[in-house]
């Protein structure tokens, strides 16, 4: 028995292989701190020519990604009425596919944020989700973070529109994961847009590019692929002045956080702001 025990410690005794169906049920990947990721991808007013107009959100989608199995467990989606420039440009409609009748049937941003907050509250109740800057018990909560493709959605578009319109923005939207920056560090290459990032990994874009909901779903698909490749998702940007989060000190992440790339090396320059 002592010889067998020694052999196990030295790794000379192989464990019995798991059944094929069990192996398929548990894909390889890194162990994630966040149980869920909420992927957001806004579409906004835009013009072909340069101008000084402030952009307004016209499509507000969000999808809930379960990081344990890669499934989208819930979705939020609504069109938003632009107030400052209510008539969409032809360029905007061509780019996004969003029609004037759709935004006119939508709701103002303030009401949209109220509905979005209620959707988040439902997720808290049904799935015990907690966000990183909320005071809650880590033993009973499932940590959740927001994900965007670049810092534009939450760091620029929503931030400045809420300031211009004096809309109270939910504090939980002040921290997020920039998947573009994370992708660049993890794979050590600069992606050529969301579609290019998917293609580099042998994945196909599903749906219409620049449709907010389709972009959000594809970003979630990309995030899941990165997770199965071994990427540990961490918060990369925070607008909060005070660092540190209540749910766990593990995710008090700053842009200088260390990532491990897909070859098991340890690069790590800081994530650019």
SS elements, strand count: 8
Radius of gyration: 21 Å
Q: Please provide the ordered H/E string of secondary-structure elements.
A: HHEEEEHHHEEHEHHHE
Low-confidence stretches: 6-28, 242-273
The class by helix and strand makeup works out as alpha/beta
Task: Based on Cα principal axes, name the global outline.
Answer: globular
What share of the residues does DSSP label as strand, in percent? 15-25%
Share of helical residues: 25-40%
Q: Report the average pLDDT across residues.
A: 82
Q: How many strands, what sense, and barrel or not for the largest sheet?
A: 8 strands, mixed
Number of helices: 9
End-to-end gap: 58 Å
Structure description:
Residues 36-232 form the Exonuclease domain. Pfam families: RNase_T (PF00929). 34% of the residues lie in helices and 15% in strands. The protein is an alpha/beta fold. Strands 1, 2, 3, 4, 5, 6, 7 and 8 form an eight-stranded mixed beta sheet that branches. The chain is globular, with a radius of gyration of 21 Å. It starts with a helix and ends in a 35-residue tail after the last strand.
């Amino acid at each position: 028995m002592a010889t067998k025990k020694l052999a196990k410690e030295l790794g000379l005794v192989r464990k019995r292989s798991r059944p094929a169906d069990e192996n398929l049920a548990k894909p390889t990947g890194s162990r994630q701190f966040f149980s869920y990721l909420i992927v957001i991808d806004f579409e906004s007013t835009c013009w072909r020519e340069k101008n000084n107009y402030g952009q307004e959100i016209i499509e507000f989608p969000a999808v809930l990604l379960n990081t344990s199995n890669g499934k989208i467990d819930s979705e939020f989606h609504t069109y938003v009425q632009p107030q400052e420039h209510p008539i969409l440009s032809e360029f905007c409609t061509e780019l996004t596919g969003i029609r004037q009748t759709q935004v006119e049937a939508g709701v103002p941003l303030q009401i949209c944020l109220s509905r979005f907050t209620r959707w988040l509250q439902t997720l808290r109740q049904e799935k015990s989700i907690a966000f990183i800057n909320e005071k809650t018990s880590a033993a009973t909560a499932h940590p959740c973070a927001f994900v965007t493709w670049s810092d534009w959605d939450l760091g620029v578009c929503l931030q400045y529109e809420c300031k211009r319109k004096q809309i109270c923005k939910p504090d939980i939207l002040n921290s997020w994961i920039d998947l573009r920056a994370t992708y660049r560090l993890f794979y050590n290459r600069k992606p050529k847009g969301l579609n290019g990032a998917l293609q580099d990994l042998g994945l196909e874009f599903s749906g219409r590019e620049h449709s907010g909901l389709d972009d959000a779903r594809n970003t979630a698909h990309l995030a899941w692929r990165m997770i199965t490749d071994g990427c540990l998702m961490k918060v990369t940007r925070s607008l909060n002045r005070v660092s540190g989060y209540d749910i766990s000190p593990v995710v008090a992440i700053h842009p200088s956080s260390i990532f491990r790339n897909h070859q098991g090396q340890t690069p790590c320059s800081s994530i650019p702001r």
